[in-house]
Structure formats: structure tokens, C-alpha cells
Specification:
By secondary structure, the protein is of the alpha/beta class. Helix content is 34%, strand content 23%.
């Protein structure tokens, strides 16, 4: 029997099994890819990505098969051979545990693994490596006020106090007077999980003037009608007329939730949707993981309403030049910022950049080589954390990191016209803890 005849026979057998009510056996014989984790990712984005990935490889009869509220399977066939992609939506913590146990090949998280999870998964390898960490999309939170509100920025500490109920009057935010009527969406939702993880240290909002709404758009409509209201919605929630988003700071400069602030992760309320895998993956698992960061996959991300990560036109940096320190203004004179900030994986023995930055650098190189960018060059600007014991340390460190990026770009044929380290200038976060250092220690790229 020829190969073609054999494949045809298998296809006929598969159809016969389905026709005779024996799908379980066909399913047992199928190759299977297991992806477990966040419900925020698994409900809409992950099925859409899986279906497009299968279509890109010419799989046919692609269909969704719900098993339980927390488990969906996507079935497909190619050349008569079945494939099942299992999407478990039990949550980030169970999903990562499944990756550690070997019950899933990929874990989808709307947060980074915490220290305990990394310790439990030590055998997985370097989870911050671009070979194991694949940022698929961005979401997050936007703080919204009435268009006539005198408030234009809010510190993360103020937002925490507002959600905790320790602040409930506009006078405590330094603007106006009267109760702050806090508008939130449904209690059991991915946004609230994010707020607990990023803002309130696990506590549920308990402001005395809190009002719940059936969805986030209803919360925004309430703000549009009420100058004394403030809402927290997802970054991707369309804003109606009559409201505006606040810049958010963490003791440093306030960053607006625009394209540049979000895609650079300078905006502090960004939520990456990330896929993690072990250092040893099957060909099928690695194929899908690598697909999620391709331009084709990013088109799917954009179609689902999330923030896509493929390179686009440069953006307004979010700060007027006259508000920049003179040294910063000189370093970027005549340039427009690209929507990214590169951050380093300082604790890794296997990679220089974190996974997201490595992927963004590859996108920059490909974008700069497009015909419309011929003759253009980049300005590279580095920043570092302040060292009270050595005033020169931040300048030296920021210069060294800028030089690393320049070497990467020049080696790949991308012209760099300027390179400068600005030390601890323009900090995004106050303090010297790990989270503050991670935000402050960055390299920006500006297009000339």
C-alpha cells in the first residue's frame, strides 16, 4: 500500500469512528498539545491563536469541543492524522503547576511566575529566556475620570489607598473636594485579579463609595455622567466621550496609557499575556510558542481587541520636549521614540535581555530593514538606577547597556547615529527595590 493510500485509509477509518459514535478512541489516538493557565487568556485569545496556527499548517476540520467550563479542546486533522489542542482555563496558578508536573507543555499566565513558582519549577530552566518566555499580547488597567476633573495623574500608592478605602475624598488626592465615587466592573473578573496582584497586595476593593457595574462600559458611562466619579477599566476598553485617562506614576514621572507607554511597559499598569514552556519542548509545542510572536499571530491578537506587539510607526513619547531634562532633550533632538524600552535579564546565565525585549529587538531590526526606512538611523539612550554610594555608577551602567544594544543593532546592519547613557535621570519609579530597578533600568530607541 502506498503512502497516499495509507493516509486515505486512515482518514476513512477516522470518519468511520466518528460516524459510529466512537470519538473517544480517535481522540485517544490523536497527538495532543496541552496548554493550561489563565482564564483571561484561555477564553478568547488562546482559542483564536490555536485555530489560526492550525490553519497556517493546513490542518482541516478545525473545531472547538468544550469539555467542561474550564477545559476546551480544539480538534483538527491533516492528512488523516488527528490533533487535539487542550486549553485548560483553571487559572494561572494551577496552569503553572501543571507545567511543573508535566501535565501541560505550555502555561499561559497574565502575570509573571512568582518566586515560589520559580523555585518549584527550577527544573524547567530559565523561564525569563526568550526561548521559554513568549509575550503574546498586552492588556492592563486604565484609570479614568470625567473630562472636567482637575486630576491629571495618580500615584500607584494613591490608587492603592483608594481601593483600600483609606482615601475616599478628592481633597485627599489634592484636587477638589467631595466623595470619590469609585466605579468598577464585575467582581470576579480578570481585571480585578490583576488589581489584587499589582496594586492591593491580594485584598479586595472595599471603598465606601464603590459602585459595581455589569460591565466595564457601564462603569465608564457612569463616569461620563458624574464629575465626582473615577473608574478603573481594562486598557482595551474603548473610552466614550466625556472621559479621559490619567497618567500613572510610581513615585517617578507619570506615564500615560498610550501606545508608547504601554508597549514600552513604562506605564505601570501593563499586564503581559505570556506563554511559558520548559527548556525541552516537543516540536509541536515549540512550533506553537514561536508562532505566537509572529506578525501573523499579532494580527489575531489585534483582532481580539488586545494590544498587539508588532512594530508600527513611532509614537509621541508622552512628554513634551520642554518637560524633559536638557541632557535627555539633547540626546533625542530631532528624533521620535519607538514604542519600546529594552530591559535586561540580570539574573540569567543564558541571555542578556528578558524575553519580551529580545522579541522586540528582533522586530525593530526587521522593521528598520523595510524599504520605507532606508537611510534612517537610531538614537540609543540608556538609563540606570541611582547608587547613593557611587555617583558615577549609574552613568557608567547606563552607558554600558546602551553600548550593548548598539553592538546588537550594528552587527545586524542597523545604523546608530547617537548613543548616550543618562544615568538615573528621568526615573520611572522611586526606591531601590527590585521592581523599581526593573522599571528604571532600561534602554530606549529613538528614530532619526
Amino acid at each position: 500500500m502506498t503512502g497516499t493510500m495509507a493516509r486515505a485509509a486512515l482518514a476513512v477509518l477516522g470518519l468511520a469512528l466518528l460516524a459510529t459514535g466512537s470519538p473517544a478512541r480517535a481522540q485517544d489516538d490523536a497527538e495532543r498539545l496541552r496548554i493550561h493557565g489563565s482564564n483571561s487568556i484561555g477564553t478568547t485569545l488562546m482559542p483564536a491563536l490555536v485555530e489560526d496556527w492550525l490553519a497556517s499548517m493546513e490542518y482541516r476540520q478545525v473545531r472547538r469541543v468544550p469539555r467542561t467550563p474550564a477545559l476546551m479542546e480544539i480538534h483538527a486533522e491533516r492528512d488523516g492524522m488527528p490533533l487535539v489542542v487542550e486549553i485548560g482555563k483553571q487559572g494561572a496558578t494551577p496552569g503553572f503547576a501543571a507545567l511543573v508536573r508535566g501535565d501541560a507543555e505550555l502555561a499561559m499566565l497574565a502575570r509573571q511566575p512568582d518566586a515560589r513558582e520559580r523555585d518549584a519549577g527550577w527544573q524547567l530552566g530559565d523561564l525569563a529566556s526568550p526561548d521559554q518566555e513568549f509575550v503574546m499580547a498586552l492588556n492592563g488597567a486604565t484609570v479614568v475620570v470625567h473630562r472636567d476633573s482637575p486630576l491629571h495623574r495618580i500615584d500607584l500608592a494613591q490608587l492603592r489607598a483608594l481601593l483600600d478605602g483609606r482615601v475616599d475624598d478628592w481633597s485627599q488626592l489634592g484636587r477638589g473636594a467631595g466623595a470619590v465615587r469609585l466605579q468598577l466592573g464585575p467582581e470576579r473578573a480578570g481585571l480585578e485579579d490583576f488589581l489584587r496582584e499589582r496594586v492591593t497586595a491580594g485584598r479586595a476593593p472595599r471603598n465606601a463609595h464603590l459602585q459595581r457595574h455589569p460591565d466595564l462600559r457601564a462603569a465608564l458611562r457612569a463616569v461620563a455622567r458624574d464629575p465626582g466619579a473615577l473608574a478603573i477599566v481594562e486598557l482595551t476598553t474603548p473610552l466614550p466621550g466625556g472621559v479621559r485617562a490619567l497618567g500613572v506614576c510610581v513615585g517617578g514621572i507619570a506615564v500615560a496609557p498610550g501606545a508608547g507607554g504601554v508597549r514600552s511597559r513604562d506605564y505601570p499598569l501593563v499586564r503581559p499575556y505570556t506563554l511559558y514552556g520548559g527548556q525541552v519542548m516537543s516540536a509541536l509545542g515549540r512550533s506553537f510558542a514561536l508562532y505566537t510572536v509572529t506578525p501573523r499571530a499579532q494580527a489575531v491578537v489585534r483582532a481580539t481587541g488586545l494590544v498587539a506587539l508588532d512594530m508600527a510607526a513611532p509614537v509621541d513619547p508622552g512628554a513634551a520636549p520642554e518637560r524633559m531634562p536638557a541632557e535627555y532633550r539633547d540626546a533625542v533632538a530631532g528624533a521620535v521614540r519607538l514604542p519600546l524600552a529594552l530591559r535586561f535579564n540580570l539574573g540569567s546565565l543564558t541571555t542578556i535581555y528578558d524575553g519580551y525585549s529580545a522579541q522586540q529587538l528582533e522586530r525593530v531590526v526587521a522593521w528598520m530593514k523595510r524599504p520605507e526606512n532606508r537611510g534612517r538611523s537610531l538614537s540609543v539612550v540608556g538609563f540606570a538606577s541611582e547608587d547613593p554610594g557611587n555617583r558615577l555608577f549609574a552613568t557608567m551602567t547606563s552607558n554600558n547597556r546602551a553600548d550593548i544594544v548598539v553592538a546588537y543593532l550594528v552587527e545586524r546592519g542597523i545604523p546608530v547615529q547617537r548613543s548616550r547613557g543618562l544615568g538615573a535621570l528621568q526615573p520611572l519609579a522611586a526606591g531601590d527595590d527590585e521592581r523599581a530597578r526593573r522599571r528604571n533600568e532600561r534602554v530606549e530607541l529613538w528614530l532619526l
